[in-house]
Each structure stands twice: as structure tokens, then as C-alpha cells.
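Question (not urgent): is this output format expected?
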Amino acid sequence: MVCAELFTALCCLHNFISRAGLTVKESKPPVQPATLAIQQLAAEIERREPIMSQEQKEKAGENMRDKMAEDMWRSYQDIMRSRRFPGVA
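Got this back:
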């Protein structure tokens, strides 16, 4: 629940800043050596993976979205069952 509230708050803040015509100065913190090593490893793994077409990427994204939705729905149903709400199979 906190994630949803945080997301909404950040959207509101973004809209407020945009409508006020303000800008946010972006500055990147220095990259820690361990983080840099992980990024380099991820880049190496990505280079080894077969290159996917845009269509394949879209299909993979759709599959991931659908699986997440199914998992969320199952979780919701489990919660409702545990609370013994009528009408939930």
C-alpha cells in the first residue's frame, strides 16, 4: 500500500513542478565500485544474450505483464479467502 501511495505522491509532485514551470537539477551521485562491477557484469550478460527484435521485446513485456497480473489476482484472492469474504471462490 505504501508503494501505491508513494507513487501517487511522486506523480503529484512531478505535476506540481511541471505546472509551476520549475526544473529539477539532476545530479548523479558517484558510482560505488561494487555497483560499477554489477553494471559491467550485467552489460556482459546482455551482450551474450541473443538480440531480440522489437516485436519479441513487446511480446516478452506482454507476457511479463500478464504473469504479474495473474500473480496479483491470485494473491488478492488468497487474501480475500483468508478474510472469508463471501462470493470469493
